[in-house]
Write a structure and sequence with these properties.
This protein is of the alpha+beta class. The chain folds into two domains: 37-80 and 276-407, RNA polymerase II/Efflux pump adaptor protein, barrel-sandwich hybrid domain (OB fold (Dihydrolipoamide Acetyltransferase, E2P), Beta Barrel), CATH 2.40.50.100; 82-274, no CATH class. 48% of the residues lie in helices and 21% in strands. The chain contains six helices and 13 strands. The protein has helices spanning 11-33, 82-121, 127-177, 183-224, 231-237, 241-274; strands at 36-38, 42-52, 57-62, 69-70, 75-79, 277-279, 284-287, 296-297, 302-319, 331-336, 342-351, 377-384, 400-405. Strands 1, 2, 4, 7, 9, 10, 11, 12 and 13 form a nine-stranded antiparallel beta sheet that branches. A four-stranded antiparallel beta sheet has the order 6-5-3-8, with no helix packed on it. Strand 10 (331-336) and strand 11 form a beta hairpin. The radius of gyration is 42 Å and the shape is elongated. The two termini are 59 Å apart. The mean pLDDT is 81.
Length: 407
């Protein structure tokens, strides 16, 4: 009796076994790939703050170097503040002048009010008129005193300007001797100094005149106490007193507005003076330093960048075909090339609202007849779990390979 034939004997059996192993491996790989998505088009991102100056001038000092760590509030750059100090002094003098004028204008309101009432009463007697005259004289003394304060403030302002002009002449004198600057520039500085000196003399003369005015006002106050005989003239002026009172009040309101304007100018000058010292807005590492001592900077000019090393994340550009099962909150593992492939753990934070091509400088235009379908990439933000980089090895721009577990 013959034996029944055995299937897959000999070499056929090994071929079938090999195909089965290959099928199992392919199925396993597909099963593993179905549970996660990975890409090498990814990098570390971070917060980079561009530090720029708000004021212009020559740089006096640079207190930081490249790749230096600084804390919040650290002075980074100092700009020459002499002109800004002069501007503060000028604004303070203008404010004092405006306040003096406002005081004088405000003093006119009660003067006019008292004059109106006293003029009405002057028809029945001269006693009230005499009292009003004394009040008017006293107010005039106050007004003259206020003008004296304003003149003294202007004198201080001109003295400060003259001092600066004299220093400029002394600074330019050796330069013109060495023929490093034009003689015309030195002569212009000398003329400015002479004009400033003349302005100081004129201001001092105004102070003397203001002091004389105070003495005259005091003398008038003495004379006003004996002015009981002027009842008829006061009665005639009383007919226009209400209109004069309105004019006085309008002048007082304008003077108060000028005080506010001068106060705002002083605040701006003080703010500009503070801005000559540029400080770090937060902790970070200095990068892209483009400033040196002696350099002339302009408002808005970038000086350096400040990189926050504590706040970094990953931006991975996944293919659109990899996003079907990807959701915020899914776990991710990030391999960092700079750390010899060390794996860091994180979480998907968000998926971009548009493809990366849409945010490019020149987005592709597919309205032509030569359309070729290209697989697009969408940026995915991955937040790293805290405490994995205590030594701050991660830097913005480093290449990484993130893997997102979709199941």
């Amino acid at each position: 009796m013959s034996e029944a034939p055995q299937p897959f004997r000999g070499p056929a059996r090994w071929i079938v076994l090999g195909l089965a192993v290959v099928a199992i491996l392919v199925g396993g790989v597909q099963w593993l790939q179905a549970g996660h998505e990975s890409t090498d088009d990814a990098q570390i991102e971070g917060r980079i703050t561009q530090i720029a100056t708000r004021v212009g001038g020559p740089v006096l000092a640079v207190h930081v170097g490249d790749n230096q760590f600084v804390q919040k509030g650290t002075i980074l750059v100092e700009i020459d503040a002499r002109e800004y100090r002069v501007a503060v002094d000028r604004a303070a003098a203008e404010l004092a002048d405006a306040q003096a004028n406002a005081l004088a204008a405000g003093a006119g309101i009660p003067i006019a009010s008292v004059s109106t009432a006293s003029d009405v009463q002057s028809a029945s007697g001269g006693v009230s008129e005499a009292e009003a005259g004394v009040t008017v004289a006293d107010r005039q003394v106050e007004a003259a005193t206020a003008q004296l304060l304003a003149a003294e403030a202007r004198a201080r302002e001109h003295e400060a300007a003259a001092l600066k002009a004299a220093k400029d002449v002394e600074r330019l004198r050796p330069l013109v001797a060495k023929e490093e600057i034009a003689l015309q520039q030195f002569e212009a500085a000398q003329a400015t100094a002479d004009a400033s000196k003349a302005a100081v003399d004129a201001a001092r003369s105004e102070v003397v005149a203001a002091r004389t005015a105070v003495a005259v006002a005091e003398q008038r106050a003495v004379q006003a106490r004996a002015a009981e005989a002027r009842s008829r003239a006061v009665l005639a002026s009383a007919k226009t007193a209400p209109e004069q009172l309105q004019v006085t009040r309008a002048r007082a309101a304008a003077a108060e507005a000028r005080v506010k304007q001068a106060a705002a100018a002083l605040a701006q000058a003080q703010l500009n003076l503070e801005r000559t010292r540029i400080t770090a807005p937060s902790d970070g590492v200095v990068g892209r330093k483009a400033i040196e001592v002696g350099q002339q900077v302009q408002p808005g000019q970038p000086l350096l960048a400040l990189i926050n090393r504590d706040d970094v994340w990953v931006v991975a550009n996944f293919k659109e075909t990899q996003l079907a099962g990807m959701r915020p909150g899914q776990e991710a593992v990030v391999e960092v090339d700079a750390l010899d492939g060390r794996a860091l753990h994180g979480t998907v934070d968000s998926i971009g609202a548009a493809t990366g091509a849409k945010f490019s400088l020149l987005p592709p235009e597919n309205a032509t007849g030569n359309f070729v379908k290209v697989v697009q990439r969408v940026p995915v933000k991955i937040l790293l779990d805290p405490g994995q980089d205590p030594e701050h090895h991660l830097r913005p721009g480093l290449s990484v390979v993130p893997t997102v577990y979709t199941k």
